[in-house]
Design brief:
The protein is mainly alpha-helical and about 150 residues long. It has helices spanning about 35-65, 70-100, 110-130. About 55% of the residues lie in helices and about 0% in strands. Helix 1 (about 35-65) runs antiparallel to helix 2 (about 70-100). The termini are far apart.
Length: about 150
C-alpha cells in the first residue's frame, strides 16, 4: 500500500484531508493558447531579444575596460537590435495574419444566418403570392418558343 492511499503510518494524521487528492490538479486556462505560428514567432523573438541584450551588456563592459573587442561587439549589438526589431514585428504581423485568416468563427446558429434565412423565406413567400409571370417575347429563348416571328 502506497503512502498516497493513507495507509496508517506516522505521517497519516497530517495528510488525512488530502488522501484522495492527486499530486497534479488541473486548473482551467485563463486565456486560450496562442496559435502555433504565432507562438513560434514569439519564442524566436524572445530568444533574439535576449541575445541582443546580452550583446549590449557585454559591449558596455568591454567599453568600460577599454578592450579592442568593444567596437566589433558594438557593431554586432547594433545589428542585433535591427534583427530584434524585425523579430518583434514578425510576431505582430503573424498574429494579425492569423486573426485575419482564422479569427472569424462561423456558427450555424449565428444571427446573420438566421436573418438571411428569414429574408429568403420572405422573398419566396412574396414570389408565391405575386400573380403569374408574363413571358417575355424578346428574350434569348424567344426564337425557339411559341412566339417566333418567322
Amino acid at each position: 500500500m502506497s503512502s498516497d492511499e493513507g495507509g496508517g503510518g506516522a505521517d497519516s494524521g497530517a495528510y488525512a484531508g488530502v488522501a484522495g487528492r492527486g499530486l497534479w490538479v488541473e486548473e482551467p486556462a485563463r486565456r486560450r493558447r496562442m496559435p502555433d505560428p504565432v507562438r513560434t514567432s514569439a519564442v524566436r523573438a524572445v530568444v533574439i531579444v535576449a541575445v541582443t541584450l546580452t550583446q549590449a551588456t557585454i559591449t558596455f563592459f568591454l567599453t568600460l575596460t577599454g578592450s579592442w573587442l568593444a567596437l566589433p561587439m558594438a557593431l554586432c549589438a547594433i545589428a542585433g537590435t535591427i534583427v530584434a526589431t524585425w523579430g518583434v514585428l514578425d510576431v505582430l504581423i503573424t498574429r494579425q495574419m492569423w486573426n485575419q485568416r482564422y479569427g472569424v468563427l462561423s456558427a450555424p446558429s449565428s444571427t446573420a444566418r438566421r436573418r438571411r434565412r428569414e429574408a429568403r423565406r420572405a422573398a419566396r413567400g412574396a414570389r408565391e403570392a405575386a400573380p403569374g409571370r408574363i413571358p417575355r417575347e424578346d428574350g434569348p429563348l424567344a426564337a425557339s418558343g411559341p412566339y417566333t416571328t418567322r
